[in-house]
Specification:
A hairpin with a 2-residue loop joins strand 4 (about 75-80) and strand 5 (about 80). The longest helix is centred in the C-terminal third of the chain and has 16 residues, at about 120-135. The strands form two sheets. The chain has a four-stranded antiparallel beta sheet. The chain has a domain at about 5-85: RRM (RNA recognition motif) domain (Alpha-Beta Plaits, 2-Layer Sandwich), CATH 3.30.70. It has helices at about 5-10, 20-30, 65-75, 110-115, 120-135, and strands spanning about 10-15, 35-40, 55-60, 75-80, 80, 85. The protein is built from five helices and six strands, in the order H-E-H-E-E-H-E-E-E-H-H. The protein is α+β, with helices and mostly antiparallel strands. It is about 30% helix and about 15% strand.
Length: about 150
């Protein structure tokens, strides 16, 4: 199965109680279709006492089964908690976006969006030089200041 097709068949289930297990999710979502895989991501800290991070993914055999599960289970109650059920989003590359270990200007997407061509850079530099070469008269705008004291009315 291609990654895109697999993503269409996978749902995100959030707001899970710590008592929820893969078996619990299997029992809750099996009425909507054949389940291929269930994942409950573990906490990032190994010292954590939690069983999972409060969310999971359920992958169905068919995309329409996933849609059916979303339509029927979103905002339902499981173990006394209201759960959020939505289409799963693709996993972000760890080198892109917020939390990345790579500077934003070094990321490929940033350069594609904000890169300035060499031709535009040269034109801007020439315009700056031309503006600096046209020196203004330092006395311009001071014509009526030759008389001391308040302005006559």
């Amino acid at each position: 199965m291609t990654e895109a097709a697999r993503l269409k068949s996978t749902i995100y289930v959030g707001g899970l109680d710590q008592a929820v297990t893969e078996q619990t999710l299997m029992e809750a979502f099996i009425p909507f279709g054949e389940i291929v895989d269930i994942t409950l991501p573990k906490p990032e800290l190994p010292s954590s006492t939690d069983n999972h991070r409060g969310f999971g993914y359920v992958e169905f055999e068919l995309p329409q089964d996933a849609k059916e599960a979303i339509d029927n289970m979103d905002q339902s109650e499981l173990y006394g908690r209201i759960i959020k059920v939505a289409a799963a989003k693709p996993q972000k590359d760890s080198n892109e976006g917020l939390g990345s270990k790579t500077a934003i200007w070094e990321q490929e997407g940033y350069l594609a969006k904000y890169a300035v061509s060499e031709e535009d850079r040269r034109a801007a530099e020439e315009a700056r030089r031309a503006a600096n070469n046209q020196r203004e008269d330092p006395m311009q705008g001071l014509e009526e200041l030759d008389v001391a004291g308040p302005k006559p009315e």
